[in-house]
Amino acid sequence: MKIIVCIKQVPDTTEIKIDPETNRIIREGVSAIINPFDTYALEEAIRLKERYGGETIVLSMGPPQAESALREALSLGMDKAILLSDGAFAGSDTLATSYTLGQAIKKIGFDLIICGKEAMDGSTGQVGPELAETLNIPHIAYVSKIVEIKDRKFKAERMMEDYYEILQTTLPLLVTVTKEINELRLPSLRGTIRAKKEEITRWSASDLEGKKERFGADGSPTRVIKIFHTEVRKSGIILDGNITEIAERLCQELKKQNIL
Amino acid sequence: MNIKILNKKCNGCGLCLKSCLFDAIELINKKAKIKENCNFCGVCVDACPAEAIVLEKKAGRKDLSAYKGVWTFAENRGGKLAKVSFELLGEGKKLATSLGESLSAVLFGYHTTSNCQELLKRGADQVYVVDDPSLKDFRDDPYVKLLSYLVSQYKPAILLAPATYQGRSFSPKVAARLHTGLTADCTGLKIDPQTKLLYQTRPTFGGNLLATIICENYRPQMATVRPKIFEEASIIHPHLSPGASLPSRGRNEEGGVIKVPLPKNLGKSRVNLVKILKNKEENINLADAEIIVSGGRGLGEPKKFSLIFDLAKVLGGVVGASRAAVDSDWIPYAHQVGQTGKTVRPRLYIACGISGAIQHLAGMQTSEVIIAINKDPDAPIFKVANYGIVGDLFEVIPALIKKFS
User: Fold this and answer.
1) Is the same domain home to B306 and B335?
2) How many structural domains does chain A have?
3) Does A233 touch chain B (CB under 8 A)?
């Protein structure tokens, strides 16, 4: 079984600060990490290989420095890493990204593609399903458990608002996973040493088939025209007094606001 | 617009036939041939591995004037309409009014008559409905194919779908299939008076920033819309009798329910539903909850979560949790609120023993009223709380339970 995991290197959004003067994001000093949901995708691929055998490939599209995210994935135990990097990919929205990833994946070949449910920075959750459509394969989003893969039959559990579904399909398939799917392992020393030496394949636009006008900004139907700071929520009041009084006061306030 | 097959390149593989939404391609002597009912959607061009199909578009800017009206997708959850369907309808109405065009709802399901009426009562000018036993439960494949098919047929300018588990799963496939833009999780929508474009605003970078996005050259302009942001459309035609048509408004001549028969093969799914597992023990529907009581590490040990459940119970609320509590296996992941869990927007959020890491705040700071209970007066949760209680939650929570019950 050939498993491809798509990962994205993202700024650690919990460290992001806004310059109050200019209203711009301060990117300096913000560390770049593997999108947290993608780490569960990597873990799942490695577990599936341990369970069923096969080959695991990690794929990312991004600037040259995204190589460090791929090395981290190799240190966890992924077999092979490919980076799609080219100025021609710049400005890609989710559709152009999924198209580009799709061209690379067609070249690699696959049985199963695993993505995180969304990236921490954009949080759209669109690239996974759009990629599945680009490849004309089924997908299951929000997978919380892969129950079984047998004779190319694939059974998984997916999370919905207030229930879970058990779904069955046939490979090839794309799944997006939630953090519930597994528990992460730490990179091993051996893995880290291997990851340093391992060669990372780098593909540019000319290595891919497909229409060049569908890469990057040209291939992106959407365009961001404005980014601005969210209004900060103001802090309220600290309730003093004994507990009975506080409870009474809260009760009144909530009634006044029609919540109770 | 012109479409042609390059016979030299065509190898007769037939992939284009499968990809076609309109059954408009046939194979003759192992060569593909485009039939007259072609809609020039271009899906086959992308599907062809031999690059043997060429779609020649008019030079310059595309003519998008054929696309009119606002469509909102009505989410069918086990036969009932999810509330967010009415929120979309309410917001869709405003957009349709700004454009001077009609508002339509789209509904897939089985035995949908009363749901269609409900959508008309709440202000939809018409409802496009596909009613078929195969659409009883949500499945991605038929939803994707059917919605793409309807859009190609009727050409709405704007298509809004809920940013729910369903909507976020199938909408991206529809956008990819139609080759148009999709903006996720919108919290602000408006028509630009000059360009008539849909300005789509959404939180990004973990909720730290807002971005406004447009889709200029492709149609429909698609967006998923976060639940509980917009007001539900109210009932404006209370006495609509079943089967009645509304007087036509807007540009579409037909009023009322437009029943679309399920086109052949579009009801099929490559993924089959084996069964639905209901969470037996408790309600985990945080996304739709009006009141959420959340517990964190301050509870000290897993069994103390019973206090949180008790408080939620007297308030008629749902239990949430911080990542720390979930990662310690005190409570299942389905309860997790925050960046790697669920984003919630209840009317009341009570954070008990949660310090308020930025990841947690990202998931709950748009709640209407926030109450925080924490023994540390410097806990960041107090920065977003309307009401803060500095104290021991094992004393405060029982007092609140007593008061509220």
Assistant:
1) yes
2) 1
3) yes
- Answer whether B284 sits within 8 Å of A243, measured CB to CB: no
Is residue A92 assigned to a domain?
yes
Which pLDDT belongs to residue B252?
38
Residue B64 maps to a domain: no
Whether residue A243 is contained in a domain is answered as no
Q: How high is the pLDDT of residue B362? A: 86
Closest chain B CA to residue A154: B271
Nearest-by-CA chain B residue for A134 = B176
Of A60, A44, A57, A61, the closest CA to residue A2 belongs to: A57
**Strand positions, DSSP E, A40-196:** 55-61, 80-84, 112-116, 139-150, 153-159, 163-170, 173-177
- Domain span at residue B386 reads 291-404
* Residue segments in chain B with a per-residue pLDDT below the cut of 50: 58-60, 247-254
Chain B nearest-CA distance from A68, in A, is: 21
How much is the pLDDT for B59? 47
Please indicate, yes or no, if residue B18 is contained in any of the structural domains.
yes
Q: Write the ipTM.
A: 0.94
Residues in CB range of A212: below 8 A, 6 or more apart: A88, A205
User: Do residues B71 and B158 touch, judged by C-beta distance below 8 A?
Assistant: yes
A167 reaches B (C-beta below 8 A): yes
Under 8 Å between Cβ of B177 and A133: yes
